[in-house]
Amino acid sequence: MEHLTHQPRLVLDWHFSTPKMSCCPHVGAQGTRHPSRRALLPARRMARALSTDMGATTHFGSREVPVEDKARLVGEVFHGVADNYDRMNDVLSLGVHRCWKDAFVAALHPQPGAAFLDVAGGTGDIAFRLVDRLQAAARADGEPSAVMVLDINSSMLKVGEERAAERYGALPSSVDLRFVEGDAQNLPLPDESVDQYTIAFGIRNVTDIPAALREAHRVLRRGGRFSCLEFSRVEAPIVGPVYRWYNATVLPVAGHVVAGDWAAYQYLAESIERFPDQETFRAMIADAGFHAATYSNYSLGIVAAHDGWKL
Q1: How far is residue 183 from each of residues 25, 31, 50, measured CA to CA in Å?
Q2: Going by DSSP bridges, is the β-strand pair 175-181/194-200 parallel, antiparallel, or unpaired?
Q3: Are the C-beta atoms of 285 and 220 separated by less than 8 Å?
Q4: Which of 29, 112, 145, 183 would you label with 172, given CA atoms 20 to 30 Å apart?
Q5: Rounded distance, CA 84 to CA 141, Å?
Q6: CA-CA distance, 180 to 287, in Å (whole number)?
Q7: Is the distance from CB of 193 to CB of 165 less than 8 angstroms?
Q8: What angle (nearest 5°) sits at the alpha carbon of residue 219, between those of residues 216 and 224?
Q9: What is the pTM of this model?
Q10: How far is it, in rounded angstroms, from Cα 204 to Cα 233?
């Protein structure tokens, strides 16, 4: 399968406008939440804290590092864990990450003929679910669909390309699947060129999250949908402390045992803890220009699926 690093051609004219649907109940979705005015001010403060300038510092897990160093440090983490990334997800979530991803993609209701951009999706977990649904729904006389997997990390992309070759061989003409190396903060795509933007378990690793949200808004067509699946905040009195203890202690140990990399999984645990809570991140999405920003909690808020629309 060809590895693309240049600007791809996405010229499909299909207009994505499927309304927001509730997520599958088997992962514990708690319904959608709508933005409140109270959330906007903290979100703008958080956006200023997460928006970075060269010469400033930002967080890398629990450490403060120069802004210009974070992308390199995150890259080293994922170069190191790429080959074991999916196996580690199974071990650490007891396989529940598959249910979260299934519910996330099912709620998108992907339609044939649309252009999909999956950011930070190197290993293909979201893209393959999209492709399977698009293939099943394709009509012989219909427009082809485009699914682009974009990731800044070449090792993750290599894993995804190899998995795609094993899974599909040669795809039928109904779906164009591409793997592209690129930065979420500076997407190699023209304005208003995609119908659906997805990012799953990736946005917390971006150096400048508000910049990535603005880029998502830029490349989406009017009527297009932004969807993000990310670890979030568990506030349940008993579950929340247990979950935070699990991340802080079990996650690095399991990373060492299964993948031989304590530091990488310590960073992943710390990055989860530093990511904004559901209300704050939803308001950040609205602040980037998206309308009808909502979220659905999965598994008591261990993860949340966020949506917004470009109108």
Answers
A1: 34, 32, 17
A2: unpaired
A3: no
A4: 183
A5: 40
A6: 28
A7: no
A8: 80
A9: 0.78
A10: 13
